[in-house]
Amino acid sequence: MREPTSSRGGQLQAGGRRRERRFATALAEIALWWAAGTVFWLATASTITAVEAAVAALVSLVGAVLARMARRAMPFKLAARRVWLRWAATVPVAAVADALRLARWLPGEQPAEVREGHFPADQGPAGVGWRAGGVVALSATPGSVVVDSNPATGRVLVHSLADGWPGLGQEVLRVPQTGE
Known about the structure:
Elements: H1 7-44, H2 50-73, H3 83-105, E1 113-118, H4 125-139, E2 144-149, E3 155-160, H5 168-172
Antiparallel strand pairs: 1-3, 2-3
């Protein structure tokens, strides 16, 4: 038979579980940053040796700890969005398409435009997540870069050198649907 616990004992147990959960979450985040940093480092290395792999792992571990500290120091909360997966899949295709368009653009006339779009003006984690992912996606291709984003109004300015298929700019700057 279990002994009854006082509410104080139950609170201590719940606090311990929360602490363990926070520690596990922090460890998982650092491990993900560490793995991503190491893979990125090794993917850009001309030759992979044991020394190169060790340096990559060590430097990436330091970077992972610093990335977690920086993320925790930010004054806002970010909610990951499902639509980021669609944008991430489109970015490589858009980057190649933009590079091909820019190859034709360089020797000829070089028109560029700064166009205005809108992100959600929501200050909650979902709106911040949409804007953060949108700025990264739009700036990840050689044909465009976000030059200004006003979170209060949702207004965003995009400098565009090349635009067209697969329409990443239009996809990112559209109004989000519920649940995206």
